[in-house]
Amino acid sequence: MNKLKISSKCEKKDFKNMLLGLSQKTLNDFTYFGKISKKNVEKIIFSELKDNKKIRFFIFLENELIGYSFLSKFIRKSKKHVCTYGIVIGDKWQGKGFGYQICKHMIETAWKKKFEKIWLTTYYDNKAALKVYKKLGFIVEGIFINEEKIHGKPRHVISMGLFKNNKNIRKTHQKIFKILN
């Protein structure tokens, strides 16, 4: 497998080109930035790069930016042990294992930064992402029915978590769901 280079920095023009090169399908699955267009891409990049709550990962393959991901810290003191997680891989690089590789790197980074839980959301029909997250050990924590509308159509959102110390997490998870049912 090709060697990825992961950096916390990126040339704005490379970031812009990567974002503008994403297909509509990829944008529908990675709605974090909302609609990306030539008119708003500079504003999106400026906002993203100045966000000091994020640990950014720019993913390069042979000097080409193929993806972007981040871990984001919570401001609330009661959630300082949790980070959120986001990732997007350029279309021509999807399905080649690069997402899995960067996710493993992000998880290692989160644990080194003393986070105890990584939380993410994805759409129920984003089967490729769900497969990767489950393989990495994320568990489903919740299902949000008709949570978002994309092009007027409702989409269900899956909330997932990965725990640094996952001892008894599955038992706790099952116990809570049993109480709720």
UniProtKB/TrEMBL annotation:
Residues 20-165 form the N-acetyltransferase domain. This is Acetyltransferase, GNAT family. Keywords: Transferase. Pfam families: Acetyltransf_1. The keyword Transferase applies. InterPro entries: Acyl_CoA_acyltransferase (IPR016181), GNAT_dom (IPR000182). It comes from Candidatus Nitrosarchaeum limnium BG20. It comes from the Archaea. GO terms for molecular function: acyltransferase activity, transferring groups other than amino-acyl groups. Gene3D superfamilies: 3.40.630.30.
